[in-house]
Amino acid sequence: MSASPLALKVADVSARYGRAVSALDRAALEIPEGAVVAVLGNNGAGKTTLLRVMSGTHRLHGGEITGGQVFVGETPIGGLNPRKIVAHGVIQVPEGRRIFSRLTVEENLRVGGIRTRDRRSAAEARARVFDLFPILADRRHQRAGLMSGGEQQMLAIGRALMASPRVLLLDEPSLGLAPLVVEQIAHVITEINRQGTSVLLVEQNAEVALGVATHAYVLELGRVVLSGPASELRNSPAIRQLYLGDGAPLGDEVADGPRPVLAPWDFTAAARTRSRKAS
Amino acid sequence: MTYFVELLINGVSIGLIYALIAIGFTVIFKATQVLNFAQGSTLLLGAYVVVQLQERLGFYGAVLAGVAVAAAVAGAIEVFLVRRASTHEHISLAILTLGIDIALATELSRRIGSEVLSFADPWGNRTTAIGPFVVPQARLAAMVVCAVIAVAFFALLKYTSWGIAVRATAEDPEAAALMGINRHRVAATSWALAGGLAAVAGVFMGTAPSPGLTSTANVTALNAFPAAVIGGLDSPGGAVVGGLIVGVVQSLSGGYNDQVSFLGSPLSEVSGYVVMIMILLWRPSGLYGTREMTRV
Amino acid sequence: ASVTACSTKKDDGPGAESADGVKMGPGVTKSTIDLGVITDLSGPFATVGNALNQGAQIWFDELNTDGGICGREVKLDVRDSGYDLPKSISLYSEMEADVLGFQMILGSPQMAALGPKMEEDDIFVMPGSWASSLLGRKNGLIVGATFDLEMINGISWMMDEGLIKEGDTIGHIYLQGELGENALAGSTYAADQLGLTLVGQEVPPTATDVTSQVTTLKNKGVKAILLSTTPGQTASAAAADDASGLKVPLLGSNPSWAPQLLGTAAGDALKEHYYVAQSYQLFNADVPGAEKVREEYAAKYKDEPIAVIPWSYAAASAYSAILEKACENGDLTREGVLAAYPEITELDTGGIMPPLDFSDPSEPPTRSVLIARPEDNPLGGLKLVREAETSDLAADYPMPQG
Amino acid sequence: MTTPPLTHQPRKLSAEGITKTFGGVTAVSDVSFEVIPGTIHALIGPNGAGKSTCFNVLTGVYRPTAGTVRLGDEMLTDCRPHEVAKLGVGRTFQNIALAERLSVRDNLMLARHRLTRAGFVATGLGLPGARREQRRHLERVREIAEFVGVTHLLSQPTGTLSYGDQKRVELARALCIEPSVLLLDEPVAGLNASESRHMARQILDIRDQLGVSVLLVEHDMGLVMSIADRVTVLDFGRLIAEGTPAHVQQDPAVLSAYLGTAAGATSGDQSSAPLTSSTTGSTP
Amino acid sequence: MSENLTASRQWATRLLVSASVVVVLIAPLYLDQFWLQLGFFCFAAAVGTLGLNLLTGIAGLLSLAHGFFLAVGAYAYVFLAGGSEEGISGALVGAGLPSWLAAILAVGVAGFAGLLFSPISGRLRGIYLGVASLALIFIGQHVLHNYESVTGGFYGRDVPTLSLFGFTFAETDPVLMVLGVPFGREERLWYLGAAILLVAYVFARNIVAGRTGRAMQLVRDNEVAASSMGIDVRHYKASAFVLSSIYAGAAGVLIVLALGRAVPDYFGLALSISYLIMVVIGGLGSLPGSVAGAFFVVALPEVLNHYATSLPFLSQPGGDGVSAVQFSEYLYGLLVVAVILFIPRGLAGVFASVRGRAAPRSAPASDGAQLEPQSSERPHLPA
Ligand SMILES: Nc1ncnc2c1ncn2[C@@H]1O[C@H](COP(=O)(O)OP(=O)(O)OP(=O)(O)O)[C@@H](O)[C@H]1O
Ligand SMILES: Nc1ncnc2c1ncn2[C@@H]1O[C@H](COP(=O)(O)OP(=O)(O)OP(=O)(O)O)[C@@H](O)[C@H]1O
Ligand SMILES: [Mg+2]
Ligand SMILES: [Mg+2]
């Protein structure tokens, strides 16, 4: 997979928060030009941290790169200012949307295209976004913060597209989206990719991720534990069980393991102690 | 009636000066969510520089220099202090500016001493009669300048990329950075603009009918706080309205203090604040401020 | 508080007994007399504080060259309170044990707060003020005519000059606080007695622009405005008086003037309309005391002189006259100073003050006030209009007791 | 305000004809449904359909423009959120709403607020009653944390947790108010398949072990179809279908507005995968 | 976190506490008036700062009105304990209550003033609340100047001596000698201040660690979430104000006892601001920080001024150049800047790191390994 030129490369990056919390441990990952690469992993595996390191925002969270390097093409960008990394065409849709809730939808999109000096290409980009997400066109004058979660997610992606990215980093884009929209977003990703943008997709929805991706990585405790062509991973039994929900039906004691039991709270006992205390 | 109108005119002309300072508060607040207590001493600094240089550079040249110095200092405060603070707690940052204000005001009042800073402005003591009312030309100039500045800021924030960058950064610096916004530049320019505005306000505060600025001018600048809050802390247009309200209320309550002597005197000191409280009870984010949104 | 021998605290030692037949108390040694000064050198009243200090320094330097008091050098322990009340209070408790008395304590809140303590400690003190509320203390010294007397004398003078006449309305812009209240008491009395209508306008010390007050007074049709204000407010009032076309005479209490005002945009208006009423001579006056001050000042300091410097020189001389008296009585303890105070019945201050009489502490030592107006001169910026005089009205004025 | 009865009596939560408009936007329009005690009731619909708005109306965050909300016999329509919570309605938030600087433990203890009494004076003076109370509830908080699987995070500030962990803490916190009705807004968003499955299991346990009724908003159809007892479907603020999962799944209006499976199934497109996850249909 | 470490830290804390108790107890035997008075001002200010920190640091409500509530406490005491008397500017009225009762009631009155503010404090947020509270300062000044029969106007009022069951906090009555040291006003007030600070501190600490403190913190961080957890947001905001004004009231009573006279000038904007500075320098939300901040801000200028004569670079009073007071103003301003610039959590942060307490953000490594939830489900994949 190293035959094609690389859009982005993460070379053995380690990162930590504060002094002690290690979030990435020599993570290595490559995004070939024109590919869609998916990253899977449990909660807390370090996926978001990986994206932060790529975009340079880890420092805003008290994070620090302790080793390794990130390259856009041949250029090292590790530790650069987020703004400079954006200038290299690496745009991220952050986890949790992070749209500007006090700005209108339209203004949010303008922020996305703020680096585009050329008015015409900005207008084109906007048209493209409205085309992909018609609801945004309808709501263009609404304050973004008042939109539903899904609408906000669309806006977040739309906003990133306004920057005409070379590499698009998506952190859980399907989060909170209705199935139809997830489908739509999958299409959009494919479409964006077809138009020449390389994509890195962090997703919990492995079905979608492996559906659109060409390559995939599995992150565990900050380390890449598995990687390969998406179609291969799809068929790995471990992946199927953990990320695709294969396996025993719900309620299977063996699969779910022993479960902790919680007894209902005894309100009357609580009331008794209280009245004893009072008397 | 004439008396009322006279008071009104006086209130408006003072209110516009408050407005200039208040616009500065709002711009800084909008861009960095910091309440800048150092605005008062920046104003004094600007005025001081103008007075020091007006003989050499002429009035307009000195004003330009004063505005530039005040802008540079305010910008530097952001670049070297606010930005580098170890905390992003807004309260702490406000206190940071208080610390700067204390140091700066101490130095300025040491230098100024009992001097009255008076400007060699082209309007001097000349007045213009509008009907039966006599208005100092300096105040007319203040009105024009203030109106122009207010409109300019409104347009700047609403329509330019800079304005949108300011608002985006204000809300979510990380997301803004991810969009390639240079939040440092945005912050520094807003502070610098506000500093320049303060210098302009300082000059108008010291021109006719005022004989000049004393070293306590930074205290008077405090009146811009209620002005900014009445208008809504993140609304430059609101700052103008707020400034006018405070100015007029102060002037009227002072003028009619005798009629309500049971309220005690001098009323003009508190009246602006009382009106502010009433307005806030009615609209907790000021007249034009963005309402705090709760969307869960 | 005195301290016993076996205490864990260091023993300051009570005043040693007579060596040259003079009883000595705290702050007095065989060769020195220590006096405290708590003043404002950095706060809102720094200018006045500084000037007061300069005048006193000139006096004591001169005194010490001439051999001091009782053969002892008088030393001033000058501390800066920045006008901060708690700071003043801790300065007092820090200094109290080591001084004979306080040559000056600036600020009426400070005086109000420390008053009872000083009475308890038998501390003799000169407040930096002319408020009649300070009268009647056996341990407090007021040098000159009080603020109310300035106004009464000033209004009488304006009547005499025909600047105002019976039945007129006059305005009074006065500061919140001591100066304002005391001056207002005087103007109210005078207005009452002379058949004038008085309109008061209170302003806070922080206000710099009094245009709206002048507008109000104009609306009331005043024929003169009294100013018990800060110098900045005086200039603002003068500018507004002139610009609004009101153009009535302005009469100020002594703290309302500062020579710097002449350089402001209001300079011309001030020269045209403003008068000041005060009991001490001008800096450029033709009296021996003032000449002396001018000479020394020029030698010592570079700043433009402030009007109040001759007063503080004279006031310091009054304080030392009392110490001198105590020395004569052979008792340089605090009690000795208190006892000596009313014994001074006629003090000459080189012509700076009218003759001063301290025999009745509930009376100001003089009721005479002079009138001056601004003039371009580098020595205080004032010229004399009328010599110090006590108007009939002022002579009959019943002093309010604090 | 009267002290709410501190019982665990399961009561029916019902929305009757609620409408909510924001300026010009009608977010919810004349929607009625009931959450039967001891059941899991799912509320689904496209983005912006008004599901979260319903939640906010039910919990008193928004006052409905029209309609009423009832818990058993009690009217909740005019209650403020804390009063609703005191009646035993717990909820999680779609966009996580934890006190970031406080530890997980403190966040959970906060939810015990309605069950505890110590006021300013008692806490301030450190009266023994207040301390005893605190100890007892800390114990319970531990139990709940154990149940949800966040015990090891108890002393960490919630702000430093990963998204999924924060979701779990939210669930634990909602449980800590000892609710009789629990409202979950997208509990498995951001969890991967096995984690979702775990969460699903937990929701079932909450229903079965605690007897709590659950109102669930979720876009993961696999989850909804496998654990919900009843489903209500909203579209553009309107109720478009209501019934058992199997029933709703067949409803053409639902298919076209929300699921889109019809299209997906016919084309056999892999990207419609979320609906074909293998847990679909495996109702307990 | 290792048991050993915790234990030794506890020991260090205990040692520190007992040492300071001993120092506080014996100090009046050695210190002279100046230091005792300064110490008392520090104690009193620390009480006030604790209150403001509960409000601003814990409940997240910015207040520039703390000075106002101090004034309410101070004047309430002066009025309640004072008799009807002739003041400088006219007749004064007073309730003439026993002074200890007046002191307690005054604290209550201050709390009540905080309650009266609740329609505003419950509705406003953040900076808006801060500036709105600024209004109280100006309104307070206006009332203090105008309501002369109670407040004494500009000149203020003498402060009646506090006496508790026949024991007065004054020079005499009864005359008291301890180890040969006469215990006068300053010595007695010193112990009073220390005792009240101790009570105030413990009370605040319990609040913060307990149910109510947690509730206030969630109100600070997320109002909607708080109310959805059963917390009455308005009630807590109002309570926070009441609580902090009670603290302010107590501080106000203490401070005027030391000042000897209540004058309006003292209770101006600068006072409120200095309290905010104490809170921030000490560390927002940290109680030990509050105490440290108060000591720092109150003592610094005094101590500087005290030793000013021995600082060669300062000009003597009246000279050109920088005077001691100006110097301490610069220093004060610049230290505020420096603390916020370099010390993230104020003085409290310094203590914490000195005592080796790990910052909450950087949890120890051993925890890091456990961050992975549901370890039983960890995939076993071929590497
Ligand atoms: N700001 C922070 N400070 C300290 N630790 C952090 C911070 N952000 C994340 N961490 C820790 O770093 C590790 C990796 O977190 P990260 O957010 O990258 O996980 P993730 O894979 O994105 O998880 P999820 O799927 O839940 O979003 C976790 O253990 C988390 O607790
Ligand atoms: N406070 C508000 N002001 C204005 N409009 C609002 C507000 N809250 C919600 N809306 C609008 O109401 C509609 C319903 O929003 P809601 O959040 O209830 O959707 P939802 O069903 O939860 O969607 P999602 O699944 O995407 O979270 C949306 O169009 C949204 O823009
Ligand atoms: Mg993540
Ligand atoms: Mg929703």
Automatic annotation (TrEMBL), chain A:
A Pfam family that the UniProt record links to this protein: ABC_tran
Q: Which residues form the ABC transporter domain?
A: 8-246
Q: Which PROSITE patterns match?
A: ABC_TRANSPORTER_1, ABC_TRANSPORTER_2
Gene3D superfamilies assigned to the protein according to its UniProt record, in alphabetical order: P-loop containing nucleotide triphosphate hydrolases (3.40.50.300)
Record's protein name: ABC transporter ATP-binding protein
State the family it belongs to: Belongs to the ABC transporter superfamily.
Q: Which UniProt keywords apply?
A: Amino-acid transport, ATP-binding, Nucleotide-binding, Transport
Q: Which GO terms describe its molecular function?
A: ATP binding
Task: Indicate yes or no for the key word Transmembrane helix.
Answer: no
Specify whether ATP-binding is a keyword of the entry.
yes
Q: Which InterPro entries match?
A: AAA+_ATPase, ABC_transporter-like_ATP-bd, ABC_transporter-like_CS, BCAA_Transport_ATP-bd_LivF, P-loop_NTPase
UniProtKB/TrEMBL annotation, chain B:
Q: Which domain of life is it from?
A: Bacteria
Q: Which InterPro entries match?
A: ABC_transp_permease, BCAA_transport_permease
Q: What is its main location?
A: membrane
CDD domains linked: TM_PBP1_LivH_like (cd06582)
Pfam annotation, one family: BPD_transp_2
Q: Does the keyword Transmembrane apply?
A: yes
Q: Topology in the membrane? A: Multi-pass membrane protein
Which residue ranges does UniProt annotate as crossing the membrane? Answer: 12-29, 34-51, 57-81, 133-157, 186-205, 270-290
Listed A to Z, the keywords are:
Amino-acid transport, Cell membrane, Membrane, Transmembrane, Transmembrane helix, Transport
The record's subcellular location field reads:
Cell membrane
Family affiliation:
Belongs to the binding-protein-dependent transport system permease family. LivHM subfamily.
Q: Protein name, please?
A: Branched-chain amino acid ABC transporter permease
Q: Could you tell me which species this protein originates from?
A: Nocardioides endophyticus
From TrEMBL, chain D:
Q: Does the keyword Transport apply?
A: yes
Looking up CDD domains in the UniProt record yields: ABC_Mj1267_LivG_branched (cd03219)
Question: Which keywords does the record carry?
Answer: ATP-binding, Nucleotide-binding, Transport
Write out the biased-composition intervals (Polar residues). Answer: 267-284
Q: Which SMART domains match?
A: AAA
Transmembrane intervals: none
What is the name of the protein in this document? Answer: ABC transporter ATP-binding protein
Top-rank taxon of the source lineage equals Bacteria
Q: Which GO terms describe its molecular function?
A: ATP binding
Q: Which InterPro entries match?
A: AAA+_ATPase, ABC_AA/LPS_Transport, ABC_transporter-like_ATP-bd, ABC_transporter-like_CS, BCA_ABC_TP_C, P-loop_NTPase
- Does the keyword ATP-binding belong to this entry? yes
Query: What is the organism of origin for this protein?
Result: Nocardioides endophyticus
Q: Which Pfam families match?
A: ABC_tran, BCA_ABC_TP_C
Q: Which PANTHER family match?
A: ABC TRANSPORTER ATP-BINDING PROTEIN (PTHR45772:SF1), CONSERVED COMPONENT OF ABC TRANSPORTER FOR NATURAL AMINO ACIDS-RELATED (PTHR45772)
Q: Where is the ABC transporter domain?
A: 13-261
According to the record, the residues making up region (Disordered) are: 264-284
Automatic annotation (TrEMBL), chain E:
Q: What is this protein called?
A: Branched-chain amino acid ABC transporter permease
Predominantly, its location class is membrane
Name the domain of life this protein comes from: Bacteria
Organism (species): Nocardioides endophyticus
Keyword Ribonucleoprotein in record:
no
**Where is there biased composition of kind Low complexity?**
360-369
Spell out where the chain crosses the membrane.
12-31, 37-55, 62-80, 100-120, 127-144, 189-208, 238-260, 266-284, 330-352
* Alphabetically ordered keywords of this record: Cell membrane, Membrane, Transmembrane, Transmembrane helix
* Record keyword Phosphoprotein present: no
Check the UniProt entry and state the signal peptide residues, or none.
Answer: none
The UniProt entry, under InterPro entries, shows: ABC_transp_permease, LivM-like
Name the Pfam families for this protein.
Answer: BPD_transp_2
**Region described as Disordered:** 360-383
* Subcellular locations according to the entry: Cell membrane
Any coiled-coil ranges, and where?
none
Q: How does it sit in the membrane?
A: Multi-pass membrane protein
